[in-house]
């Protein structure tokens, strides 16, 4: 079933179809939220709040823009609200992979994630969000523009500048990400 059809059915009172929306977006939204708030427990609560808001606000969604952009605007707003309230700027992100059979892989993955987070922290908030929405959530430039409420040209420029900035940092400092 296409997402537009699912949305229409939910809007028409067939609320049991909302589970399709949750199943389709839950992991991507969780990944986005945890990268922004850097706190697993808070991310779980925020994702739950997001889906509650989406459910009760779905009637407001008009097919003017994409559903992805509408949804991720809610995601970004909820994350920023949380950060404003908690005033949390830096915390280590938990590694999601735990495999006792290969502890060296877990350690290397954790180390790589830490290095990546340190690199990403050197970007400004908008550059970070553009990268996150583009490469983690696979949103189009138009959708990113709509979510962040910046021009399409700004999306392209921020994406280019942030990749160039990360490339420059990795070339001077080395580490896992020298191939960027």
TrEMBL record:
Offer one Pfam family short name for this entry.
Answer: Sigma70_r4_2
Q: Which UniProt keywords apply?
A: Sigma factor, Transcription, Transcription regulation
Q: Domain RNA polymerase sigma factor 70 region 4 type: where?
A: 114-166
The protein's name? RNA polymerase sigma factor
Per the UniProt entry, what species is this protein from, by scientific name? Lysinibacillus irui
Classification via SUPFAM superfamilies: Sigma2 domain of RNA polymerase sigma factors (SSF88946), Sigma3 and sigma4 domains of RNA polymerase sigma factors (SSF88659)
Q: Which Gene3D superfamilies match?
A: 1.10.1740.10, Winged helix-like DNA-binding domain superfamily/Winged helix DNA-binding domain
Family to which the UniProt record says this protein belongs: Belongs to the sigma-70 factor family. ECF subfamily.
Record InterPro entries: RNA_pol_sigma-70-like, RNA_pol_sigma-70_dom, RNA_pol_sigma70_r2, RNA_pol_sigma70_r4_t2, RNA_pol_sigma_r2, RNA_pol_sigma_r3/r4-like, WH-like_DNA-bd_sf
NCBIfam families documented for this protein? sigma70-ECF
Q: Which residues belong to any copy of the RNA polymerase sigma-70 region domain?
A: 22-86
